Amino acid sequence: MATASIPQTQHDPGRLRVDLVDPTADPRWAAFVATHPDGLAFHHPAWIATLADTFGYPPAHLACEDDQGRLHGVLPLVYRRGIIRGRQLWSLPCTAVAGPLTTSAAATNALIQTAIKLAQEPPAHQLVLHSMVPDIDPGGTVLTRVEGSPTYVIDLPERTEPLRFGPSAKHGVIKRGVKKAREYGLRLREAERFDDLTAWYRLYVATMREKESPPLPFRLFDAAWHHLRPAGLLQLLVVERRTGEATELIGGEILLLNSQTVLGEYIARSPIAGQLHCQDLIQWHIVHSAWEAGYRRVDLGDAHPESGLARYKRKWGGQPRPMYRYRESHPAEPQNIPSTRSRASTLRRLAKPAWRRLPLPLVARAGALVYRYA
User: Fold this and answer.
1) For the domain that residue 49 is a member of, what is the CATH number?
2) Are residues 218 and 278 in the same domain?
3) Which element (helix H / strand E) includes 373?
4) Long-range contacts, 231-234 (Cβ 8 Å, 24+)
5) Minimal CA–CA distance to 42: which of 266, 219, 278, 330?
6) 78 and 162 together in one domain
7) How do the pLDDT tens digits run along the chain, 374 residues long?
8) Terminal CA-to-CA distance of the chain, rounded, Å?
9) Residues 161 and 310 in one domain
10) Are residues 227 and 116 in the same domain?
11) Claim to verify: residue 178 and residue 202 sit in the same structural domain
């Protein structure tokens, strides 16, 4: 998620056109994402297929091409209708960041203008884009931009340079944490079996219950396992500790890989994971394996700048990169309806006292309902 601005290439804007396409059937889309320096797994047809299998949202994926059929940009979009959010044309639900991926401002503008027209067709939908590009609508005349919590990115050095994490003192603290994790008997491996995914998901649901957040449905991770993993775009790392004859799952994290970026997005951890330095062991592996494989950056995910999580990410050398949400409000939208944020906040406040007491199967079911219908 390291896009800072729209890459610039020179071409005639008048020769560009935008079409609705099926990314899973058009090989140009995957090739474009794979070769773009800011391409993410979230832009890839395999992720688009994952969302389609999970939720079945009607697609409106856009591609910008020239008169030779060469792609200059893509914009994955789906239509959804929620009880709280209403009708939306979204890039993309259940996705940290997507939005337009282009080679020029002209291509971005062509894609955005087409998306606005699609959103305004009856019945009108609100256009919602999650992006790291700060200048999608430079004049701010159509889209309203809100800056959210930043994501924290580690820019990896060349293989010819040593891999270190910030000042020597911080690097030493990290190495000691990893050493302690190994002394506690923690062992990390890449999951190979579907049973590993189901075990990880149970721990993920428990983690989300503790965080008072709805977990994503298992169906999404099932689909991702089958669409992304065969293409080399997904890894599940699990950390275990053997006690006698039993093996205990302490933590795990799903990685999404594409182009130049490794993204750590979905974390599960047991109540004792912190004191055992489980995340230190995972993060050490992620950064070193990404560096050895030639990736240019590791995205540690978003966090509030003043939170302990943000301090942890900065300790590893993560630098904040802004993330933006763009919204286009339809003129016919009623003005006396409470905002999506206020309605969602009210529901969270009402549900919070009971959330941590719910059995895990009910937490998983509640999460699936929230992401499908909210």
Assistant:
1) 3.40.630.30
2) yes
3) helix 360-373
4) 231/44, 231/46, 232/257, 233/41, 233/44, 233/46, 233/47, 233/257, 233/258, 234/41
5) 266
6) no
7) 444 444 444 445 568 999 999 999 999 999 999 999 999 999 999 999 999 999 999 999 999 999 999 999 999 999 999 888 889 999 999 999 999 999 999 999 999 999 999 999 999 899 999 999 888 876 666 888 999 999 999 999 998 888 887 677 788 899 999 999 999 999 999 999 999 999 999 999 999 999 999 999 999 999 999 999 999 999 999 999 998 889 999 999 999 999 899 999 899 999 999 999 999 999 999 999 999 999 999 999 999 999 999 999 999 999 999 999 999 865 444 444 444 445 556 656 666 778 888 999 999 999 999 998 87
8) 26
9) yes
10) no
11) yes
Query: Looking at this protein, which amino acid is placed at residue 39?
Result: G
Alpha carbon separation from 111 to 52, 57, 91, 97, 308 (Å, rounded) = 21, 20, 12, 17, 38
Residue reference for tokens 């912190």:
274
Q: In terms of domains, do 166 and 249 share one?
A: yes
CA 35, 131, 150, 300 dihedral sign is negative
Single pTM value for the model: 0.89
Pair (123, 159) in one structural domain: no
| CA of residue 76 relative to chain centroid, distance | 14
